[in-house]
Each structure stands twice: as C-alpha cells, then as structure tokens.
Amino acid sequence: MFGRSAIRGGGFRAENLGQNALTLIGNIGFSLFVFGVLIFTIIAATYEPEDPLFHPSDKITTFLTSTSNATLRSDDSVVKTGEDFMLANQTAFAEFININDVEASTNETTSEEEGNKLECDVNTPIDCKDQQVFHLMMRATIDKFKDIHFYKFGKPVTGEEGVNSCDMAWRYRPRDGKSAAFYKDYRRFVVAKSENCSVSVVGIGEYHSGLNARKRKKNQKAGFEKTGGKKDDFSLPVVGELVNDSLPMVESDSVFKTGKYLVYVGGGDRCKSMNHFLWSFLCALGEAQYLNRTLVMDLTLCLSSIYTSSGQNEEGKDFRFYFDFEHLKEAASVLDEAQFWAQWGKLRKKRRNRLNLHLVEDFRVTPMKLAAVKDTLIMRKFGSVEPDNYWYRVCEGDAESVVKRPWHLLWKSRRLMEIVSAIASRLNWDYDAVHIERGEKARNKEVWPNLEADTSPSALLSTLQDKVEEGRHLYIATNEGELSFFNPLKDKYATHFLYDYKDLWDESSEWYSETTKLNGGNPVEFDGYMRASVDTEVFLRGKKQIETFNDLTNDCKDGVGTCNAATS
pTM here? Predict the structure, then answer.
C-alpha cells in the first residue's frame, strides 16, 4: 500500500530522480557555505596581528627610507623626526637675496648718502643704523659666504663699545642644503672710516660672535628681505633662535576643569631604544589629537643602555635634551604630567568640582570607541606583560587607518642642531663627509667578513681617491674609538671629527649652560645618543656623503645574506 501510493505520487519515478538529486546537492552546498562563514567569523573575531616590533610588515621595514611617514625600527640608530620628512619647498627657497638685490636697494638711497658726506666728521663713531653701513655689511657677507643663501638680514646694532663695530644677524640655508630648515647666524663686523668718511668692512667675526644682534624684539621687522617670495615659513625649524622650552602654564581652575585630557600610565616602553620610544609616544599624541584632548606627558625619559657610557639604563633624562619641546607645545595641546596631577589633586579636594576619570586597561579598546567619552580624563593603564603593554599597540589594527602619528610635531632639539650648525659653519658649509662604521661589526667577521679590511686606512685612501678631491675638508663620522687610526688620511685631506669641536658642549659652552639650567642646576652629560645624533646630522650636511655600506664595502649593513632583504 505504501509502495503504491508512493509510486502513484510520483516521488520515485525515474523521470524525477535527477531533479531530486540536484535539490539534495544544493542543500548540502548551502549548508557547507553557512558552516564556512561561521568558521571565518570565529577566526576573524579572535585573530590578533603579530607584533610589528618582532615581525615587521613590508610597510614597517621600508617606511623610514621613504619621505611619506615614519615607523618603528628595532635597531639603535639615530631616529628620524618630523623635519626629516619635510620636502624642501624649492619655490620658497629660490627667493634668496643676492648682490644685485642689495645693489638695487643701495641705489635708492645714494642721493641722501651723498648729502651726508658734505658733513663729514672722521671722529664721529660709526652709526650702525646708517643705511650705507647696513648695505655695506650685507654685501660683504654675501661676498664672503659663497656657499650659503641668505633670506633675511636683521637691522645692525652697535657692537663692542669704543670700537667701530656693528653686530648683524641673518637667516640662511646652505646653498646645497637638502633639509627643509633655516639657520640663523649673528656676527660682529669691524667697520673702518676713511678720511673722506667713506666706510668699509675690514673684518667679520666668527660664528655667533655678534651677540648684540642675537635677540630679536617682538614684532620687529626685518632690516632687509626679498619681496615677492614667501617671506616667512614658521612651519620650518629655525636653528639659532633663542629657545623657549619652559613648561606651558597651567590654565585657571575654571578652564582646567572644563578641559579634556588623555594620559598613558605604565607599560613596557621605558628604557627601550629611542626608535621604540617615539613610535609609542607619537601613537599617544595621535590618539589625543583624534579625540581632541590634551596629552598629559611625562617629560622625564629613561635613556637606554645602548646610548650610555655606564652601559646601564639611566633614568632622569629630560625630553627637552633630545627634542624641540618649544615647537611641540606651540603646535599641539600638551601638558606636563607633574603639573597636571598637582592641579588635578587640588581641584579634587574641592567637592564641588566634578572631575571624572575613565579608566581603560585593554589596549584593544580602540580610540574610536572612546570618541563619545565625556569624562574629564581618559587614562590608559598598561600592564607588565610584553609586548601587549607597549603603547603603540593602541594604534594597531582598525585604529591604524584612523589615528595618524603626527611626525610633523616632533623635531630634534634645536640646542643639538645648534652644535651641528656651528660645526658646519666653521667648515664654511663646504666639506665632504664619510661615515665609517667599525667597532663590533668590524670585529665580527662571520657576519661582516670584509668590513675591517675595507675600512682600513689603506683601503679608505684607495676608495676615496675616486670620490673625494685631494685637499678637501673631509668630515669623518665614525664609531672608531681611536681616532689616530685615521691619521694616514691627513696626507690627502683636511680631516675633521666630532671631538675636534668638543668646546661646543664643554663647561664653557652655551649648550652646557642652558642644559644645566634646564636640569635644575645639575650638569648634563653629552651622552652617546647626543653624540651619534650630532655626528649623523653633520655628516648629512656634507656636499658629498659617502656611506660605509654600498660605498666603502660590499658587506651588507645587517650582515651576510641581508642585502637583498634590506632593499626589497
């Protein structure tokens, strides 16, 4: 009976078997698709990307060699900062002052000057404010320093009392400069007056000798600058100006309690390399900007043992020793941590002040999820397990496309860059530079088999003869501890080393005085990171720059078999 009705219903008729099979296959396929989607969803929800510090992506490994941004590197090299990624605006820099500009300006005042000569008095002191004297000083400066371009001259002021001297400042760039930065110099001019009262410049002092012209009065107009071009660009560093990196003033109670703040607490970033520190610090600063909050920052650093003479990590270093805090506080909203907690504690004691804290203890809580938080302070607290307690983890994953590290806000210390400028100026910005890496790498022949031989004096003389003209000033940036090792090079070149200029950071120097004051009266060591930073920057300002790897040796920078990986 059952069989008949089934047959009558047509379920198992021969002509229906193909259709039923197709339906069954379709149902199985759909079930497999749903199961696959479920598995993929579970994997996506639980997946955590690898730590870029230990497993860098292509973006991480190639970033620092590009001009678009910057990223973390796990080595101990000198870090790149915001100004290194600025593309020099050649249109703006093309508008420099030349002799013809000064001559044209001089001709406009000729008749007035001729009238003044009728009242000649040889015994009258030189008037530094006189236009004729000013134009004479500008012409003498442009004629003397042929390897730099001038963009602005300040009005001359009286130099040493009782001597016919004038001090004048100017803003300039090296003619072949590759960095997007301006420099300031101020020098003392000795001006002589003849019997017919005509004047001439008989001497120009050394770098920064014109101290009376150093400080520019607020809103003071330049004495001379070329019109029609880009007159001033305050988005670029100006090395040589007075530094004001004092702590920003804490706002009044009423303003403070209406503000919004972000602070990072704890974590494993302390005492790591400077590259690691910046990669994490700029993540925090980027999140603060995304959330439109003031970043509460700790200005005390722990300097990694890789930079110290003691070979130990050293606490108590000041952020301002290494970076331009004046630029940072003017361009971003930041507040010193000690100042913040003092003000926070004072206001919390007053019950009428509602200061709410929002605590976040999981780095996977994205900045996007915190955008709606209204509390006064967001505190990100990091644990003790590395690498999940690194600050930069906040900017990974989905946050990477939203939070941008503001590299343009972080510049190198202008005090250190002032030393760089002083060295380059003593060399008249007319020198070639070679970087010679030896040390541990030269001794490790398994990893760098040819480095020691390729950087020996005889090998260097052979290699450099086709790269540097004989008799040139040659700045040698090196980690070789015994500088007499390079004595054979003196037969062909005028060699210069960082330690030839140690007067720029010794006890009588301006750097020593300013950093001691910044450090509460305690002297500051010119540490390994500072030395490497200055050495590198002087090297980069050479007209020719010859690197150890690629130029002096065929060994790979990171050891045997890594050359292709480094360039891929």
Answer: 0.81
Residues 6+ apart with CB under 8 A from 33: none
What sign does the CA torsion over 265, 270, 275, 278 have? positive
Q: 221-242: per-residue pLDDT in tens?
A: 667 776 544 444 446 788 999 9
SS3 527: coil
Q: Residue 498 and residue 475: Cα distance in Å, rounded?
A: 8
pLDDT digits (tens, 9 = 90+) for 107-162: 555 544 554 555 677 788 899 999 999 999 999 999 999 999 999 999 999 999 87
Beta strands in 8-163 (DSSP E): 148-153, 157-158
CA distances to 168, 174, 180, 206, 491 from 428, rounded to whole Å, are: 18, 9, 19, 11, 21
Question: 385 and 425: one domain?
Answer: no
- Specify whether 184 is located in the same domain as 279: no
Q: Give the Å distances, CA to CA, from 155 to 40, 108, 166, 183, 518.
A: 71, 18, 10, 17, 31
**Phi-psi region at 110: left, alpha or beta (left = phi > 0; alpha = psi -120 to 50):** alpha
Do 425 and 537 belong to one domain? yes
Task: Kindly report the three-state secondary structure assignment for every residue of 310-333.
Answer: CCCCEEEEEHHHHECHHHHHHHCC
Range of the domain at 265: 244-395
Closest Cα to residue 483, out of 464, 462, 497, 501? 497
Structure tokens at 9: 């219903």
